[in-house]
Design brief:
Layout (H helix, E strand, L loop, with lengths): L3 H30 L1 H5 L5 H32 L2 H19 L5 H4 L2 H17 L2 H10 L7 H5 L1 H23 L2 H8 L1 H18 L6 H8 L7 H8 L1 H30 L6 H29 L1 H23 L4 H28 L6 H18 L1 H12 L1 H20 L6
Helix pairs in contact: 1-3, 1-4, 1-7, 1-9, 1-11, 1-14, 3-4, 3-6, 3-18, 4-6, 4-7, 4-11, 7-18, 9-15, 9-17, 14-15, 14-16, 14-17, 14-18, 14-19, 14-20, 15-16, 15-17, 16-17, 16-20, 19-20
Length: about 425
């Protein structure tokens, strides 16, 4: 039976990434639905959408900076206090977006403030996922690293369901005018509840055994990022490459698919949010299955299968996402998100295994967030442009390319890793 300490550790690693992904999905959904006309007025709706997606991508460029800053303190001062600080910055930025005036009210200052807060979101997010993974993996019993490491990745479907479920509820209870006027603010405001819960759990934790041992043996480098690039460059590049497919696949199946499905294809917002919430359960299933198998076979085979699934998803994107039937769209989303979960889940246990304890927080955070830039920051923008130029088949080729980059990341390491 799990002890109270075990439950607290796993809950703390889960709740933080749930808040992380809730915050990101709330922004992604709002960017797809309302931020264009509210904050980026333009005569061409396509230009509005690209500007909105650009603000979404801004956080990805803040994340490596957050990874370096929080990674430094996580490797020098400890995992617990760093995770508390990252959660406060991340959640505080999200809640503040709920109170922003629009372009119609204060002009160009509105999108500027939105971008500043989006940058603050990304800065906090840069230190969240890596620290949550270490919290789970560094406390895991031997042979259970991947099963414990799956709890941070499971924050993705939980945060997604909470965020899109909230938007779905608002769509069912508010008129379109009410949603545009003030309803979109409520999901951002609700993040405060999750942040308070996360802080309450994390403040009760003790430091991880791996960090305590490294500190006791004076194995904490004074500048972790310098040590990382000097002695762990290949592992960092491999980890970065392995993350690319996950981010590309996820944001194309959520933010881009939602926008494309409700505009170009003409599906109702409520119906599309509904099938996305159903499909996200396959992401959770992929995470659980792949992490359970990874403790038996190793993480690399499961990652490889996940990346191949990403390539298959790209090949099927045109005929399935572009179908008139929402059931066929749902099948593509479910298949794609299962493949994404199969690759994303083992990252929680695999990335920490690439680095020594003294640079582990920095290494995991840098690799995860650089991969996020390459895979996720530009994905919705590129997909929008590719879809306009040549349809969904071109977007699918983009996904195949992301899968090949991730397979290349795995190939950088010796088979034992």
């Amino acid at each position: 039976m799990p002890t109270a300490s075990t439950r607290r550790i796993l809950l703390a690693s889960l709740i933080g990434t749930s808040v992380e992904f809730y915050d990101f999905y709330v922004y992604a959904t709002a960017a797809a639905l309302v931020f264009g006309p509210l904050f980026f007025p333009a005569s061409d709706p396509g230009v509005q959408m690209i500007a909105s997606y650009a603000s979404f991508g801004l956080a990805f460029f803040a994340r490596p900076l957050g990874a370096a800053v929080f990674g430094h303190f996580g490797d020098r001062l400890g995992r617990k206090s760093t995770l508390v600080a990252s959660l406060m910055l991340m959640g505080g930025s999200t809640v503040a977006i709920a109170f922003l005036p629009t372009y119609a009210q204060i002009g160009w200052i509105a999108p500027l403030l939105l971008c500043i807060l989006r940058f603050g979101q990304g800065l906090g997010l840069g230190g969240e996922w890596g620290g949550a993974s270490l919290l789970a993996v560094e406390n895991a019993p031997k042979g259970h690293e991947n099963r414990w490491g799956m709890f941070p990745p499971l924050g993705a479907p939980i945060g997604f369901i909470a965020a899109n479920g909230f938007f779905l509820l608002l769509g069912a209870t508010l008129t379109p005018a009410q949603f545009t006027a003030w309803g979109w603010r409520l999901p951002f405001l609700a993040s405060a509840v999750l942040v308070v819960l996360g802080l309450w759990v994390r403040l009760k934790l003790s430091e991880t055994p791996a960090f305590r041992e490294a500190a006791a043996h004076d194995a904490l480098p004074p500048v972790p990022i310098a040590e990382l690039f000097r002695h762990h460059l290949r592992a960092t590049l491999a980890g970065t490459g392995a993350v690319i497919a996950c981010f590309a696949l996820f944001y194309l199946t959520t933010a881009f698919a939602l926008s494309y499905g409700t505009t170009t294809l003409g599906h109702s917002r409520q119906a599309f949010l509904g099938i996305e919430i159903g499909a996200i359960l396959f992401l959770a299933l992929g995470v659980i299955v792949s992490c359970t198998l990874a403790d038996r076979t190793g993480a690399r085979p499961m990652l490889r299968w996940g990346f191949l699934g990403c390539a298959v998803s790209g090949l099927l994107m045109g005929p399935m996402l572009g179908a008139a039937s929402l059931w066929i769209v749902f099948a593509w989303l479910a298949l794609s998100l299962f493949a994404m979960g199969s690759a994303y889940g083992p990252l929680g246990g695999w990335l920490p295994s690439l680095f020594d304890a003294g640079v582990r927080y920095t290494g995991v955070s840098i690799a995860f967030n650089l991969g996020g830039i390459l895979g996720g920051a530009l994905a919705p923008i590129a997909a929008q442009k590719l879809a306009e130029a040549g349809g969904l088949n071109l977007v699918g080729i983009y996904l195949v390319g992301a899968a090949l980059l991730s397979l290349g990341g795995l190939a950088l390491l010796k088979p034992a890793r």
